[in-house]
Amino acid sequence: MPRSPKRPALTGLIYALLAYASWGLLPLYWKPFGSASPLEIVSHRVIWSLILLAVLAVMFRQLDEMHAVLRNGKRLAVLVLTASLLSVNWGLFIYGVVSGQVVQTILGYFLNPLVSILMAFLFLKERLSPVQTVAVVLAACGVLHFGWHLGSLPWIALGLAFSF
Q: Exposure winner among 42, 91, 132, 146, fewest CB in 10 A?
């Protein structure tokens, strides 16, 4: 069992910075794949991830747990749904990058937290404090302003935000 960090807030901050830095640099990685279709790239990601996870399941002796999940119809349905949304998200992301529409891709990831807040409000009945409401309204105004200047419906951005 892994040890818990001595300073979890600092560890979380470091992980968040590393995640956002990698997301920011990923377009540089995907851009040279322009000759391959986004479907082909996502298919490779799925296949190689499946192989990696199968190897890890064997290495860590997790095959029984994996079989239990696969036999549970409800869990399997949830996994298929989430995997489908993830595939759509990555496909749109890769399409946006290789087709030169990186601005829409960026807008999608700025829009993503606002969609999450909206879903939490609608489905989980979450409420924001007055300060949080002001922050969300300001962020929404910024994203709307940014999106308005694109000149067309940012379907890639909307697809990314709602499939995340």
A: 132
